[in-house]
Amino acid sequence: MVRTDSKLKIAVQKSGRLSEGTLRLFSDCGISLNLHEARLIAPAENWPLELLRVRDDDIPGLIMDGAADLGVVGENVLEEARLERGGMGAAAEYRLLRSLDFGHCRLSIAQRTEDANGSLEGQRIATSYPYLLRRWLVQRGIRATPVSLTGSVEVAPRAGLAEAICDLVSSGTTLAANGLQEREVIFRSQAQLIGRMGPLQPEQSATLDRLLRRLDGVQKARE
Ligand code: PRT
Ligand code: ZN
């Protein structure tokens, strides 16, 4: 039995759009997981590592605070957390280890199809990514007001809460179904493997090197 504190702790999304790609990656690396749907921790059976299965929004903080060693998370969630935490003076650093080539999407501003050629100036823009949106607005000198919503962003214009939205898009079906038209891509994202700052224990460091070598092999084979 490997001591828990010498295992690599890897924070991953418990269930959602990144879970399947994440589990496939570990499986392709030859790692067998002891996975129980209701359990937070999924230990590997043949590697000194364990997965911590959490909500994706918790992953950047777990890495930036040094509570987990590695994480798999979308760049959208990562960059939003970095901006938010940096602004509050909280730890906001991490190491970008590998781009994982799944979970691709874009964060885009969309307006009602009938307004889609009009200016954003003075508009309310509903979003779950107020920091990424505000940065983009400031860079372009556009005076618009981000309105924060954690869900159902695409219904905000119909509900009279905002004139536009800034949300993740992959196929574009959700925007079209809500009478919205994509207007500006403000951020492009995919899943990333990230690591905490600071040194790992020697055993953990050896496990990470081995994991990265396997990952590189898996990614090469997929090309
Ligand atoms: O429960 P938990 O907090 O862990 O999950 P969650 O519901 O917050 O996240 P989840 O599972 O929906 O998404 C996890 C990550 O997947 C995101 O942070 C992105 O990095 C990535 N991803 C890739 C996407 C999409 N594609 C995507 N299309 N995340 C969300 N969407 C949503 C989007 O918000 C919109 O509602 O899908 C809808 C649009 O899809 P299309 O195909 O209609 O354009
Ligand atoms: Zn989430």
Automatic annotation (TrEMBL):
Catalytic reactions of this protein: 1-(5-phospho-beta-D-ribosyl)-ATP + diphosphate = 5-phospho-alpha-D-ribose 1-diphosphate + ATP
Domain ATP phosphoribosyltransferase catalytic residues, every copy: 55-216
Range of residues in the leader sequence: none
Activity regulation information from UniProt: Feedback inhibited by histidine.
A GO term, aspect molecular function: ATP phosphoribosyltransferase activity
EC number: 2.4.2.17
Location of this chain's protein in the cell: Cytoplasm
Transmembrane segment boundaries: none
Cofactors (names): Mg(2+)
Recorded family membership: Belongs to the ATP phosphoribosyltransferase family. Long subfamily.
Protein role: Catalyzes the condensation of ATP and 5-phosphoribose 1-diphosphate to form N'-(5'-phosphoribosyl)-ATP (PR-ATP). Has a crucial role in the pathway because the rate of histidine biosynthesis seems to be controlled primarily by regulation of HisG enzymatic activity.
Protein name, UniProt field: ATP phosphoribosyltransferase
Name of the gene encoding the protein in the UniProt record: hisG
